[in-house]
């Protein structure tokens, strides 16, 4: 029974020394002198501020993409003990001793280093030779632009790592499909494909393009499986469900988890809160939550409230009035009602307070018990300080003549009666009997007499003239003109009024509330709002000095100076290996021409290469050319400011195509021994030139050694390159 103990337990390990060597070289090239320069380099000034906010648990919104990339950068800061105290205000600023520069740059550098062995394995899984795979890895290793981008606190190297990991995982899964479906390794690589895709999308939305490519590839492969008569219907259904789970459900769940962690970490109020709804702001510690703590939940007749416009564009603002009236005549000659002005004011102010009044009663206090206002109820809104009623009538608004003027009614004893009844419509109600709730309810006020809706029209960017103190216009908009968030309001601050006398009420309007209310949002509600803000929030994209167009990238007619030493002239540039970029373009052109030639010939029943070689050519090229196309072509449709580094994911796929084309030419077009020898010699010479260019531009890739003005001028191979030369 114990006979197995008579022999020693032996474990056999097979180590691919190519992979080990490539990994070591990748680590050396990306980690060498990683802390240099100890100064803010280009977009570190942008991402660094988010790392600081993570360290301090302060909420922020970044419209550039999902939070995973930011969290990974923040993880580096956390591991290095960063406290978040650094002013990220300019490129070139020296880091303080409290900033763990090496740790902050570590994860992007590791991701960039691991792209080298990933490139090798992808070519192997595409059924190409180890020599071709080694060439692909070395091209990634010696690509100056990829080295530069991975050595700083930037996201492109992390994005490319997850993209390549997703491609490799899917290829391994697909190759296992033929002989070991539903095995442990089959499940591992399928699940890892979904995980890597979700991580790529979670770093930057550009990862979505490769995710779509892999989904399309998986769909095509499954379509071929449907035609396999050896597979039963049950087996096909199991394959379909497995792919749906791994490639759709798990990525969606992981994407949600990124936001869950993001929101769990950032629980404190911060400078970005103002673009979120009142309910979201109130869920954060400090800020609005501190102001609104203890508010009653249900709005009742007699409630004192402030009304915030839900749209929040171009800035958050509250319904506001003051004693000043509209001018009798505007600059263009049109007349007004000369009533008290009503505006949307972008600051908290005592004149933002309104009292919800029952039209059938005179009292301005909350009864005991309170009578809540429900959807469909008719109310009057009384301005707290001036006690005048919110009113609209058939008079043109000052800036929007096709809309009605909104005012607080002053009785001038002329033929202009008050029209101050408003119907409360709860937009996000669950039923028609819903109670109007503080912060949570989004409401519209529909004017009873004219059916106009109370609307902040200042979202169009126009503000009132000097007589209106440059505040935003509020109008009555006809319902027939459709629905817009500028017509929706929510109660932000709220108290139950107790004072009937005006002087006592004015004191009360400045007093804190005393009743408790919970305003916590569910995760899905917060996720939905934050996701919508990320997708729709548009910063004012101004033309950057180093921005470029997608057409400039193909031939590398542009570069980006990342850093310049203030005295020595040492500098770092995002600049690619010229030979590699040109070779990638040639490889893509050769692939397109050869593919067209083969297709035309095959249409004539002429097969120039064996069928298995043709399938290999199509599948490998489809992955690489497809990866290049889906990551590059959408750039022509993007409206945001573009930079050279946006091309790097597409470039990576194009580089992988080079050894594919070279092996194909060597195997199928160089048929004599002499041609093969000459072709091999050309490849050696070409690769030597790749290494020579890498070494030539290394000083501006790593930032050292510093070069003289003459040496810098010699590096300006194109007139369009911006090489910085300091005046002596």
UniProtKB/TrEMBL annotation:
TM annotation in the entry: 12-32, 68-88, 100-120, 126-142, 154-174, 186-219, 240-267, 578-600, 612-630, 642-662, 674-694
Catalytic activity: a di-trans,poly-cis-dolichyl beta-D-mannosyl phosphate + L-seryl-[protein] = 3-O-(alpha-D-mannosyl)-L-seryl-[protein] + a di-trans,poly-cis-dolichyl phosphate + H(+); a di-trans,poly-cis-dolichyl beta-D-mannosyl phosphate + L-threonyl-[protein] = 3-O-(alpha-D-mannosyl)-L-threonyl-[protein] + a di-trans,poly-cis-dolichyl phosphate + H(+)
PROSITE patterns tied to this protein: MIR
Transcription regulation keyword on record: no
GO annotations of cellular component type: endoplasmic reticulum membrane
EC number: 2.4.1.109
Family of this protein: Belongs to the glycosyltransferase 39 family.
Name of the protein this chain belongs to: Protein O-mannosyl-transferase 1
Gene designation: Pomt1
């Amino acid at each position: 029974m114990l006979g197995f103990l008579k022999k020693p337990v032996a474990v056999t390990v097979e180590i691919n020394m190519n992979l080990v060597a490539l990994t070591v070289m990748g680590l050396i090239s990306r980690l060498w002198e990683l802390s240099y320069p100890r100064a803010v380099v280009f977009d570190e000034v942008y991402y660094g501020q988010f790392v600081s906010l993570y360290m301090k648990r302060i909420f922020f919104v970044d419209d550039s993409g999902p939070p995973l990339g930011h969290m990974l950068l923040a993880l580096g800061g956390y591991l290095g003990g960063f406290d978040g105290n650094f002013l990220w205000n300019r490129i070139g600023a020296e880091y303080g001793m409290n900033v763990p520069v090496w740790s902050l740059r570590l994860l992007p550098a590791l991701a960039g280093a691991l792209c080298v062995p990933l490139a090798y394995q992808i070519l192997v899984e595409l059924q190409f030779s180890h020599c071709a795979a080694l060439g692909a890895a070395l091209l990634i290793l010696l690509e100056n632009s990829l080295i530069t981008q991975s050595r700083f606190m930037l996201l492109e190297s992390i994005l490319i790592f997850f993209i390549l990991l997703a491609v490799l995982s899917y290829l391994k899964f697909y190759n296992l499909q033929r002989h070991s479906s539903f095995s442990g390794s089959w499940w591992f690589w399928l699940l890892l494909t979904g995980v890597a895709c979700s991580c790529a999308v979670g770093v930057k939305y550009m990862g979505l393009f490769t995710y779509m490519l892999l989904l399309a590839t998986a769909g095509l492969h499954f379509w071929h499986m449907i035609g396999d008569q050896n597979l039963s219907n049950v087996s096909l259904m199991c394959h379909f469900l497995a792919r749906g789970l791994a490639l759709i459900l798990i990525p969606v769940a992981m994407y949600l988890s990124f936001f869950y962690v993001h929101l769990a970490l950032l629980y404190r109020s911060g400078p970005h809160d103002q673009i979120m709804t009142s309910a979201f702001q109130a869920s954060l510690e400090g800020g609005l939550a501190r102001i609104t703590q203890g508010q009653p939940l249900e709005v009742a007749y007699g409630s004192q409230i402030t009304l915030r416009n839900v749209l929040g564009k171009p800035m958050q603002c509250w319904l506001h009035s003051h004693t000043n009236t509209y001018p009798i005549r505007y600059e263009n000659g049109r007349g007004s009602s000369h009533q008290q002005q009503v505006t949307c004011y972008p600051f908290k102010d005592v004149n933002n307070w309104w009292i919800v009044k029952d039209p059938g009663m005179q009292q301005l206090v909350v009864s005991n018990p309170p009578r809540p206002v429900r959807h469909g109820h008719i109310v009057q809104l009384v301005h707290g300080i001036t006690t005048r009623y919110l009113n609209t009538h058939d008079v043109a608004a000052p800036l929007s003549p096709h809309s009605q003027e909104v005012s607080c009614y002053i009785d001038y004893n002329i033929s202009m009666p008050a029209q101050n009844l408003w119907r409360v419509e709860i937009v996000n109600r669950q039923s028609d009997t819903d109670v109007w709730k503080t912060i949570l309810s989004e409401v519209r006020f529909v004017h009873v007499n004219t059916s106009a809706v109370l609307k902040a029209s200042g979202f169009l960017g126009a503000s009132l003239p000097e007589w209106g103190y440059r505040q935003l216009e509020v109008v009555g908009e006809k319902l027939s003109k459709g629905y817009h968030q500028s017509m929706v309001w929510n109660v932000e601050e709220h108290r139950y009024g107790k004072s009937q006398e005006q002087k006592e009420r004015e004191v009360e309007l400045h007093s804190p509330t005393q009743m408790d209310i919970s305003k916590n949002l569910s995760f899905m509600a917060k996720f939905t709002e934050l996701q919508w803000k990320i997708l729709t929030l548009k910063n004012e994209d101004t033309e950057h000095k180093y921005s470029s167009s997608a057409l400039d990238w193909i031939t590398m007619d542009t570069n980006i100076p990342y850093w310049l030493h203030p005295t020595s002239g040492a500098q770092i540039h995002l600049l690619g290996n010229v030979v590699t970029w040109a070779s990638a373009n040639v490889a893509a052109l050769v692939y397109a021409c050869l593919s067209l030639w083969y297709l035309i010939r095959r249409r004539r029943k002429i097969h120039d290469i064996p069928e298995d070689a043709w399938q290999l050519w199509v599948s490998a090229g489809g992955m690489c050319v497809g990866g290049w196309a889906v990551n590059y072509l959408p750039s022509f449709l993007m409206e945001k400011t573009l930079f050279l580094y946006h091309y790097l994911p597409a470039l990576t796929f194009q580089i992988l195509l080079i050894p594919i084309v070279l092996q194909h030419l060597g195997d199928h077009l160089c048929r004599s021994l002499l041609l093969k020898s000459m072709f091999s010699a050309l490849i050696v010479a070409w690769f030597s030139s790749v290494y020579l260019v890498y070494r030539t531009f290394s000083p501006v890739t790593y930032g050292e050694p510093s070069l003289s003005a003459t040496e810098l001028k010699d590096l300006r191979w194109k007139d369009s390159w911006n090489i910085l030369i300091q005046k002596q």
